[in-house]
Amino acid sequence: MPGLWVVGQAAADGSLAHISAEVATIARTLGGDAGDDVTGVVVAADPKRAADELAAYVPRVLAVPEPAAADHAWATIAAERIAALARQHEPDHILLGADPEGRDMAGVLSVLLEWGVLVNATGISWTEGGPSVQMSVFGGKLITTSRFTGGHGIVTIRPNVATAEEASTAGTVEAVSVEGDLALPTVRVVDRVTEAGAAAPIEEARVIVAGGRGIGGPDGFKIVEELAAELGGAVGATRAAVDSGWINYSQQIGQTGKIVKPQLYLALGISGAIQHKVGMQTAETIVAVNRDPDAPIAEFADLLVVGDLFEVAPAILAELRARSG
Predict the structure, then answer these.
(1) What is the Cα–Cα distance from 282 to 207, expressed in whole angstroms?
(2) Furthest-apart CA pair in the chain: how many Å?
(3) Tell me, which fold does domain 202-324 have in CATH?
(4) For 128, 199, 215, 260, which has the most beta carbons within 10 A of its beta carbon?
């Protein structure tokens, strides 16, 4: 099974992680351009549900049951099983999401297979001889393009650089067993903590209302939260707001936070520095409220409202409530 492999991650409920659907969509396009087969691989205690969902995106999926994944950290275990399969079937490249689990797995796979890794891809295309991978470096100030020199390679792809799209025809799922005991140390998961918040992760939100340094403090985020609730969206923030302790890191958007791709991004008190722009520039519509008409965000926002956010935001909220009332 040479060609491209896609690692499918199973979420806590057994479903396919959204980032894996995005990576599978990219892999299918690359496979078409390269004339290569595309195969998905799911390793989980019970891989059936995630494997079935991954088959909606790629022609073939290998479902690998691994009981240890039920109560141990997943990345190392899955990497060991996938490496064993890769030695047997010799894929050309392995693609996976650049989330915490994917980053951990990529490092283990690189060591086990002795393959190179290109990380945090913001774009990927096929050129003669292999994938051409675009990466954002130096806080988003530069975009580099890299390729593998040794033939085989591993690529981690950042969330929201592509829209997940199912294939016209569903693929097949094949149950596969990997023999032998796990050789690498495993880490038992003793507790899982789920943070209360929006119904959907911020990376999947269709509407995001974000606050920056101009919010002024934790109390300023009350209007951000009210607007997000009224719009059925999620709350986001800049690194400055997170570093100041006004909001949790899980809501940070930008080069060192999340990359989002909502239909609407409402930015309140955000200057639009390049480090933040990297994380939200692919939003379909960007509306910004800022007192400074020359703020960097004015250059790429679809609509800039020049004014005090503590006057403009309540007015928007009042209008939204009047329309829904």
Answers:
(1) 13
(2) 65
(3) Rossmann fold (3.40.50)
(4) 215
Common-topology check for domains 4-175 and 202-324: yes
In 115-141, which positions are buried (b, 16+ CB within 10 angstroms) versus exposed (e)? bbbbbbbbbbebeeebbbbbbbeeebe
Rounded to two decimals, the pTM is 0.79
Place of tokens 């140390």: 185
Q: How many CA atoms lie within 13 A of 210 on its CB side?
A: 41
- For the segment(s) 4-175, the CATH number from 3.30.750.24, 3.40.50.720, 3.40.50.620, 1.25.10.10 is 3.40.50.620
Chain-centroid distance, C-alpha 112: 25
Q: What are the tens digits of pLDDT across the range 204-261?
A: 899 999 999 999 999 999 999 999 999 999 999 999 999 999 999 989 998 888 889 8
